[in-house]
Amino acid sequence: MESVHHVSTTSKILFSKVRKIVPPMLEKFHKGQLGRVAVIGGCADYTGAPYFSAMASARLGCDMSHVLCERSAAPVIKGYSPNLMVHPLLPSRDTINGHVSFDAPTLAAPIVDMLSRLHALVIGPGLGRDEVTLKIVAEVIREARSRSIPFVLDADGLLIVTENPNLIKGYKDCILTPNVVEFGRLAKALGVKVSSPAEIAKSGGNDVTNKESDACEQLSQALGGVTILQKGPHDVISNGATSIISDTKGGLKRSGGQGDTLTGSLGTFLAWRLAYHDKLWDSGEKDNEKEAQSKEDVQAELESEDMRMSPATTLLLAAWAGSSITRECSRRAFKAKGRSMQASDLTDEVHHAFLELIGEPEGSKTHL
Fold first, then answer.
1. What is the pLDDT of residue 3?
2. Residue 185 annotated as part of some ligand binding site
3. What is the DSSP string of 242-295?
4. Is 88 annotated as a binding residue?
5. Residue 242 forms beta bridges with which residues?
6. Residue 233 labelled as part of a binding site
7. Is 126 within any annotated ligand binding site?
8. What is the pLDDT of residues 345-361, one digit of tens each?
9. Which SUPFAM superfamilies does the protein's record reference (predicted)?
10. Longest CA span, the chain
């Protein structure tokens, strides 16, 4: 197999292109236009993950952050922050009183009814493995895809895909964020024979990054070009044709919950990307009639100073930006807290990381 085509553009140029899809702060915008993002997850055992994800989304700059969770989790998550809108809409075996049979589309209806109000979904943080919950979320994924709503899948949201890859196969508006174990499960489920990251690292040599990218590319291709962000010492992002390596320096503490800052950040970037393509503001770019299909097309869009980018390019940029923001948050939090660093410390660094790496776009009115 031919080696994956790495985007050769420097990080500085990539960040300048990411800035193009960030809405400027303008007086003409009204509430909700700069992002309505919902995190679907949260159960009795896991309430921190959806909170950290939704708060990262909010701190990065989306207007409205929702959490759609299981009933028992709602009071707890509400207690964490009054800034989040928390909806106890996610059914579980307990909420249907243990009934063996149930109608998944009917139980999913209250969540589906909310989809028209949302720009992007983050599915998986704190979701748990309740069989009823997972079937209802599968219905939501199916409906979101039919409406072309972009979404991020993480944690137990990835388990749904592992059991039914056709739910997302070929859907170009989603990002999967597997860790090493989750990546292996997905590869096995799809019959993709790739070396594990541990095996690749052990093999050594100068082509470790190429081997990691090849594995990510193969898995993406097996899913019909779905964008995959494989988390690791550096993050590998691939849509099956083009890959980008995210190697912004992070912290050395591997505390739980750091991936939730990633998913929340991705949710906001997906919402902003939608606003960019809807031309919510004048970016000063010329319309591009050609949809990026190849590495060369993406490269041309990234190197152009005045060409409007196509969805394939902006999705890669959104994934890369979310990864970079999270890694910078981790670095800053570790610098401040050392080995005592926790997930909440990353939340406090999101805005600072954004300003450091990306900065406000031209035209933003940040001082009144």
1. 35
2. yes
3. EEEEE-----S---TTHHHHHHHHHHHHHHHHHHHHTTSS--SPBP--SPP-SH
4. no
5. 5
6. yes
7. yes
8. 999 999 999 999 999 99
9. Ribokinase-like
10. 59
Tell me if 180 is assigned to a ligand binding site: yes
- The stretches of the chain forming alpha helices (DSSP H) are 11-20, 48-60, 74-80, 104-112, 131-146, 156-163, 180-190, 197-203, 208-222, 258-277, 295-303, 311-337, 343-347, 350-357
113 among the known binding-site residues?
Answer: no
- Asked if residue 82 belongs to a known ligand binding site, the reply is no
Domains for the chain: give ranges and CATH numbers: 11-22+31-358 (3.40.1190.20)
Give SS3 for 238.
strand
Q: How far is the C-alpha of 281 from the C-alpha of 26, rounded, in Å?
A: 9
Is 257 marked as binding a ligand? yes
Q: Is 255 annotated as a binding residue?
A: yes
253 is in an annotated binding site: yes
Per-position pLDDT tens, the chain of length 368: 333 333 445 888 899 999 999 999 999 999 999 999 999 999 999 999 999 999 999 999 999 999 999 999 999 999 999 999 999 999 999 988 866 688 999 999 999 999 999 999 999 999 999 999 999 999 999 999 999 999 999 999 999 999 999 999 999 999 999 999 999 999 999 999 877 666 766 776 556 677 888 999 999 999 999 999 999 889 999 999 999 999 899 999 988 899 999 999 999 999 999 999 999 999 889 888 778 778 888 888 888 888 899 999 999 999 999 999 999 999 999 999 999 999 999 999 999 999 999 999 988 876 55
Q: Is residue 181 part of an annotated ligand binding site?
A: yes
Q: What is the pTM of this model?
A: 0.94
Which segments of 33-179 does DSSP mark as H helices, in order?
48-60, 74-80, 104-112, 131-146, 156-163
**204 annotated as belonging to a binding site for a ligand:** no
Contact 316, 245 (CB under 8 A): no
Q: CB within 8 A of 177, min separation 6: which ones?
A: 152, 153, 154, 158, 229, 231, 259, 262, 263, 266
Q: Is 161 annotated as a binding residue?
A: no
